[in-house]
Design a protein that fits this description.
Keywords: Membrane, Transmembrane, Transmembrane helix. It contains 23 helices and four strands. The chain is mainly α.
Length: 522
C-alpha cells in the first residue's frame, strides 16, 4: 500500500514508499548529520532485506530450543503441575505473546529499523534510551543465565574427560574453580561468534536448529528407556488437580511464560528489519514460535516427569539430567547439543538486542560489536548462578517481574505505532533533532507518564513467599498485590491506554502538524 510522502525535515531526503508498503531511503542517501546515527542504526536498504519465511522460522526454532526454555517447562513440573497442565500453560502463553511480537515486528519490516530507533517515535530521540537500556539490562541477565548453563555443560564434559581432579576441584566462591574456568571459556566462545557479525548469527542458527531438536528427542528416548516405557512418564499426576489450587498457580505461570519472550516482543524489529516482506515475518514467526515452543516444552515436561518416576524427585535442570548418563558417548552427544542450543539462542536472543541498545546510547562511540562486548561484561555482574538456582526464583520472581516491566514498554510501542500513527513514520526524522520526534528536549513526556504508571501497576504488588525471593510477602505496595499475578497484562494494557489517551487528547503540536501533512494511513 502506498502513502503520500511526509513533509521533509530541513536536513533530510524524502523517504521512498515501495508498492509492497515497505519504506526506505534512496540508495546512498545520507542521513542527517548528528549524534543519533551510525552504520548499525541506519535503515536497512531494500536490497539487503532478504530474510524470508524460512529464515524467521529457523530463527524461532533455534531460539525456542534452548536450556532456559527447557527449565521453564520443566520448572512447572517441579513446582507442582503435571505434564498436561504445563503444556496448556506454555502453549497458551506463546500464542498470546505472538500477537505483540508480530505487531512490533511490523515496524522493523516496514522501515528497516532496529528497536532503539523504533522507540524514538514514541519516547523521543533521547527518551528512547530508557526502554533500550531496560531491555538491554534484562537481556544482560538472560545472557548471563545462558552462559552459566553453557559453562555447566563444559564443566561436566571436561570432568568426564579429565576425571575427579577436575570435577572435585577446590571450591572458590561456592563453586569449584574449574566451574569458573568453564564459565569463562564458554563466555569467550560466544563473544568470538558475535564479533563475526549478524551473518554469523544467522548461519549458526540455520544449521543448529535441526540438531537441537534431534538432541531433545534423543534425551526423551533415553528417559523412556530408563523409566521402562512411556507409561511411567504419563502416569505422573499433579496434586493440584484442576481446581482452585491449579488456577492459583496457573496465572502467575502464564505471565512467566509471556515474560520469557517479553524482551523479544520489544526488539524483534532488530531481526524483522531484514525481512523481504511483511508476510515473511508474520508467517515465519507464526510457524516458528508457538509450534516449536510447544513441541520442545512437551519434550521437557515428559523428560522431567520421567526423572520424577526414575529418581523419586523431578530434575528440572537438563544439565543435571544428562549428568546421570552412564554411557560416555551418550553424555558427549547430549552435552554437545546443550552447548549448541545455548550458543545459538544466547547470541540471537540476548546479545543482538543489547548490542543495538548500547549503540543507540552513544552512536558515535559505540557500534554493534562494542555494544556486544559491553553486554558480555555486564552479564557476569548480575550473578546468573543465583537467578537460576531455584525454580520459584526463576519463574515467579525473575520472569514475572521482567514480564511486567517490559509489558509496559510494549503497550506504549503498540499504542504509538498502531493507534496514534497508524503505522506511519518519517524515517529521516528518527535520526534528527530537527524532526518531529524530538518533542521536548528529546523526551516525550506522555510515554514517560505511561511508563511510570504502567510499571507501578504491573510490578508494585510483586511479592515472594517468605524466604523465597527479594520481595516482601505482602508485596512492595500491598494494595496492588492482587495485580501481581497478571503483571504483563496489567503493564501492557494500562500503558497502552494511557499513552493513547495522552497522545490523542494532549498531542505534541509539532507532531500534530506533521501528521496533518501526511494524512494517508499505512
Amino acid at each position: 500500500m502506498s502513502e503520500a510522502p511526509p513533509a521533509p525535515t530541513p536536513t533530510a531526503a524524502r523517504q521512498i514508499i515501495h508498492p509492497d508498503g515497505r519504506v526506505s531511503l534512496p540508495e546512498g542517501a545520507p542521513l542527517p548529520a548528528g549524534p543519533y546515527v551510525n552504520d548499525d542504526l541506519q535503515p536497512v536498504p531494500i536490497s539487503k532485506r532478504t530474510w524470508g519465511v524460512g529464515s524467521f522460522t529457523a530463527l524461532w526454532v533455534s531460539m525456542s530450543v534452548q536450556i532456559p526454555a527447557w527449565t521453564l517447562a520443566s520448572g512447572l513440573i517441579a513446582v507442582g503441575m503435571d505434564w498436561r497442565q504445563a503444556i496448556l500453560t506454555i502453549a497458551l502463553g506463546n500464542l498470546i505473546v505472538l500477537v505483540p511480537m508480530v505487531l512490533t515486528g511490523h515496524a522493523g519490516a516496514r522501515y528497516g529499523i532496529p528497536f532503539p530507533v523504533f522507540a524514538r517515535a514514541s519516547f523521543g530521540l533521547r527518551g528512547a534510551n530508557l526502554p533500550a537500556l531496560i531491555r538491554g539490562a534484562v537481556a544482560c541477565g538472560w545472557y548471563g543465565i545462558q552462559t552459566w548453563v553453557g559453562g555447566q555443560g563444559v564443566h561436566i564434559l571436561a570432568g568426564r574427560m579429565l576425571g575427579e581432579r577436575w570435577s572435585d576441584a577446590t571450591v572458590v566462591g561456592g563453586q569449584p574453580w574449574t566451574m569458573w574456568l568453564s564459565f569463562g571459556l564458554f563466555w569467550v566462545i560466544q563473544l568470538a561468534i558475535i564479533l563475526w557479525g549478524m551473518e554469523g548469527v544467522r548461519r549458526v542458527q540455520v544449521w543448529a536448529a535441526p540438531l537441537m531438536l534431534v538432541g531433545g528427542v534423543a534425551l526423551l528416548v533415553w528417559m523412556v528407556r530408563e523409566a521402562g516405557g512411556l507409561g511411567p512418564l504419563l502416569a505422573v499426576n499433579s496434586d493440584l488437580g484442576w481446581g482452585a489450587d491449579f488456577w492459583k498457580l496457573f496465572f502467575p505461570s502464564l505471565m512467566a511464560i509471556i515474560g520469557f519472550w517479553s524482551t523479544l516482543s520489544l526488539n524483534i524489529s532488530d531481526f524483522t528489519r531484514f525481512s523481504s516482506s511483511q508476510r515473511a515475518q508474520v508467517v515465519g514467526q507464526s510457524l516458528g514460535l508457538p509450534t516449536t515452543m510447544a513441541a520442545f516444552a512437551l519434550l521437557a515436561v515428559m523428560v522431567t516427569a520421567g526423572t520424577q518416576a526414575v529418581y523419586g524427585a523431578p530434575l528440572w535442570d537438563p544439565v543435571e539430567i544428562v549428568a546421570q548418563m552412564s554411557s560416555g558417548l551418550a553424555l558427549l552427544f547430549a552435552i554437545f547439543i546443550l552447548l549448541l542450543a545455548t550458543v545459538s539462542t544466547n547470541i540471537a536472543a540476548n546479545l543482538v538486542g543489547p548490542a543495538y541498545d548500547l549503540a543507540n546510547l552513544r552512536p558515535k562511540l559505540i557500534g554493534f560489536r562494542t555494544g556486544a562486548v559491553i553486554t558480555c561484561v555486564i552479564s557476569v555482574g548480575i550473578f546468573p548462578w543465583r537467578l537460576i538456582a531455584d525454580p520459584n526464583m526463576y519463574i515467579f520472581t525473575w520472569l514475572g517481574t521482567v514480564g511486567g516491566l517490559l509489558g509496559t514498554v510494549g503497550g506504549i510501542l503498540i499504542a504509538d505505532y498502531w493507534l496514534l500513527r497508524r503505522a506511519r513514520m518519517d524515517l529521516p526524522s528518527l535520526y534528527s533533532r530537527d524532526g518531529r520526534y524530538w518533542y521536548t528536549g528529546g523526551w516525550n513526556w506522555r510515554a514517560l507518564v505511561a511508563f511510570v504508571v504502567g510499571t507501578v501497576l504491573a510490578v508494585g504488588g510483586s511479592n515472594s513467599p517468605e524466604g523465597q525471593g527479594p520481595f516482601p510477602t505482602d508485596g512492595l505496595i500491598p494494595f496492588l498485590a492482587p495485580l501481581a499475578d497478571y503483571g504483563w497484562l496489567v503493564g501492557l494494557f494500562s500503558a497502552l491506554l494511557l499513552h493513547w489517551a495522552l497522545g490523542r487528547f494532549l498531542p505534541d503540536p509539532r507532531q500534530r502538524a506533521a501528521e496533518e501533512d501526511s494524512p494517508t494511513a499505512a
